């Protein structure tokens, strides 16, 4: 049985993601993304599962930055989970949910429910928490306060809360991608009904700030007809205007094309780091309701 | 006298930025970035000043996204401010600052002081606030609690707090870029000692998901030898994998080169929107101490 670190507490979307990939393993929740990544780095657990990108909010910068600047882990897999937000209250507050005075949740969950909150709870204050799970926990612990949490159905179940309003997220098609991290790049099996293709992720830093540098880099992929599923610029943390690029290629590492790209970029004096080549899994919308 | 909306409350870095560009105008603080942008959109104020990018944390997604998806405002100017974080306490707590139990601040300010917090306050909890200014205000209002705020020197002054530890940020060369927004694109004067060049910002959506699309887009800039100071992908909010690109060109809108790029991209079936052509200002490090 493998040990899996995930961004807790119980009832987070990360727990949903982790249990979809590792249905029969042991789960250990950690209070922050760096803590998850540190635990796999020092060998306390076998894998860490953390969010890396949301369809609405974009990249989870802390994950990308900690991966690049702090813990050199490899991406061993990806799992995509549909994000459906619910307004969770203690049953004591259910009747008067429109008089809720304060809403607790993770900043992204609050941002994802912006229109709902403006329309139905325009006078409610927000209080940011580290996770949707901890927001639900806080609400469960204060049954007589006029407060609510934003979180998923798993959190309602685990903390004994009631869904006052369901599916309060602004956008349909909201999903979050989670990555499965390990010190080395072993191959997770693709033999899963959730398997949805392969990816290879490269980090590229440009040689110098000259016009057309990124264009040169992309040429190496373009003439090989490689499909990039994402390109993201992140700060080098050395000053405004200094970036590196994280590039997702929609294929598994091979012996010709991707090594050719890497060699070509290195000849251009780029620094290239392989962050992983891995299978991607996807939890279909209805599967979210299945116990995983 | 012009009316300037800024992301408040008093003592935020946005207030420092706004007063550097508009030293003699009237300031109105708003509790959120969307509120600032709404107020200039409906004509209650002449300009809104909001953060758009931090050198460490990257783009302020809420600003970019609200600009693209909600309020169609133009960028009329940019001001860069050095970010120096201080650990602020009520003087009652000064002697025992190492026993602080909870640290209040904006998530980015907490992230920027990660190493300091881990080393000196490893057991302190974090509580996220909407701004560094409101964190300082909370600490000032609770003099007998073992709490601290992370914020700037202006906040210490305005809320009567004491700097327990100065310059606690992890990285040197940390700056934040703020944009000055208005409904139309008037030209702010470049006649300022803070003037530091011009920029033009374009939003580009790609015609379809085909290999090499972004490479084609960048070709239009590259063969004209235009220097891109930034390229950022942001989600379209229509699903994972759908992005638009915000591209900063390091020059003022002209009559030949940038219109040529736009025509070429439109011929490729890209959708191109001009977000503004504007002067950039920069507050030198030492000027941060000057009363602005």
Helix-strand category of chain A: alpha/beta
Specify which chain pair forms the largest interface: A-B, 49 and 49 residues
Q: Total domains of chain A, how many?
A: 3
Multimerization status: homodimer
CATH topology of the largest domain in chain A: D-Maltodextrin-Binding Protein, domain 2
The pLDDT mean of chain A sits at 90
Distance between the termini of chain A: 16 Å
Put simply, the count of helices of chain A is 9
Percent strand of chain A equals 25-35%
CATH architecture of the largest domain in chain A: 3-Layer(aba) Sandwich
Spell out the CATH superfamily of the largest domain in chain A. Periplasmic binding protein-like II
What is the total tally of β strands of chain A? 15
Give the H and E element order of chain A.
EHEHEEHEEEHHEHEHEEEHEEHE
List keywords for this structure.
homodimer; 292 residues; alpha/beta; D-Maltodextrin-Binding Protein, domain 2; Alpha-Beta Plaits; 10-stranded mixed β-sheet; 5-stranded mixed β-sheet; 15 strands; disordered C terminus
Quick structural summary:
Chains A, B: It catalyses: prephenate + H(+) = 3-phenylpyruvate + CO2 + H2O. 2 copies of one chain form a homodimer. Chain A is α/β, with parallel strands linked by helices.
């Amino acid at each position: 049985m493998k040990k899996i670190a995930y961004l807790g507490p119980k009832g987070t979307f990360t727990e949903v993601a982790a249990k979809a990939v590792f249905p029969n393993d042991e789960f250990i929740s950690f209070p922050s993304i760096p803590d998850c990544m540190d635990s796999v780095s020092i060998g306390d657990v076998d894998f860490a599962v953390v969010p890396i990108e949301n369809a609405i909010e974009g990249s989870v910068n802390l994950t990308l930055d900690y991966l690049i600047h702090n813990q050199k882990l490899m991406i061993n897999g990806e799992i995509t989970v549909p994000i459906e937000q619910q307004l969770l209250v203690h049953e004591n507050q259910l009747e008067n949910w429109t008089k809720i005075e304060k809403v607790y949740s993770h900043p992204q969950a609050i941002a994802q429910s912006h229109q709902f909150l403006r329309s139905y709870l325009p006078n409610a204050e927000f209080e940011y928490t580290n996770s949707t799970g901890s927001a639900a926990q806080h609400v469960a612990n204060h049954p007589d306060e006029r407060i609510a949490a934003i979180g998923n159905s798993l959190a309602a179940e685990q903390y004994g809360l009631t869904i006052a309003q369901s599916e309060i997220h602004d956008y349909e098609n909201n999903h979050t991608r989670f990555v499965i991290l390990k010190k080395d790049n072993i191959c997770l099996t693709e033999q899963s009904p959730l398997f949805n293709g392969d990816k290879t992720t490269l980090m590229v830093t440009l040689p110098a700030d000259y016009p057309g540098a990124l264009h040169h880099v992309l040429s190496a992929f373009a003439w090989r007809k490689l499909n990039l599923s994402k390109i993201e610029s992140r700060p080098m943390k050395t000053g405004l205007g200094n970036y590196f690029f994280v590039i997702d290629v929609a294929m598994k590492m091979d012996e010709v094309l991707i090594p050719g790209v890497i060699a070509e970029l290195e000849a251009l004096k780029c620094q290239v780091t392989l962050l992983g080549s891995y299978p991607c899994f996807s939890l279909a919308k209805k599967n979210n309701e299945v116990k995983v």
